[in-house]
Description:
By secondary structure, the chain is an alpha/beta fold.
Amino acid sequence: MKKIAVVGVQESIGREILSFLEEDGIKAKDVVALDYKSVLGNQVSYGEDDELDVLNLDDFDFSKVDTAIFATTAELAKRYVPKALAKGVKVVDTSSAFFAESDVPMIVAGLNDSKISGAARGLVSVPSAPVTQMLVPLGAVNEKYLIKRIVVSTYTSTSVYGKEAMDELFDQIRKIYMNDTLADNQKVFNKQIAFNVIPQVGEFLGDETDCEWALNAETKKVLNGNVKVHANCAVIPAFIGCGQFVNVECEDEVDVEEVRKLMSKTPGVVVFDKHVNGGYVTMADVQGENDIYVSRLRQDVSVENGISFWCVADNLRVGVAKNAFAVMKLLSANN
């Protein structure tokens, strides 16, 4: 069995990637867990019965593995991915570090698999979680009706910033119920996150944020088209998951019932759309799930050839880890 390295296992996405490897039947002895500045004795769970030693990324010899999935910051990816590639390792990167490089395809498994052949260096990137969540249900729709414009509003959980942000939400909720002050309890967020909505995800790049930029730029790279995207991204006081309202305008006349059928047939998409109270799926319903759930699908009568829908997913599992794992299998099979 070829060995697989997962880099960044001490963060949520890295652990979810390990979960997919274990669920696929890959033995613990064939997986290497790595993290930046990991100290001797660090371990991470692998399934219910096994523990993996977390090795220090600085000391690791990548010639010992065949494939690596990087679930790190862009800064760390830029530093260590070239070292892995130099040893002949095939790499899947979950960051934006190599977005602008033409020989690094961005893949959403099942949507643009053919682009894997363009990975000249053996390096593939995957888009950010909200992009994958939005595009998977729209893949077949784009093929049939040709999407020309998307307006998306995302409501993402604190997990987008990692464990420290989730802890900050928990601590603020606890302090509010204890009638305690929130002073000095805003380390990750610039505003109170408990019982609040913050209209900023990522740093500002001009008048838009990192997340809004990614939804625009990464969508265009994945679809390889001239689709126009306007995104609005907010963080809500939830721990895991992402919800999106998506408005789509197509070139050709759209049949909503046909769209419903197309989405229902898409692997990894579940359409649960009953026009009654509670006949939809929420973020709280999808934690730990492996699918993207679509509800509130209807005609958008404000434009020609328009539809809108609500979708939710576990942003850690579905948005990044599941796709990274599937792309790793594509890359390994591509010779």
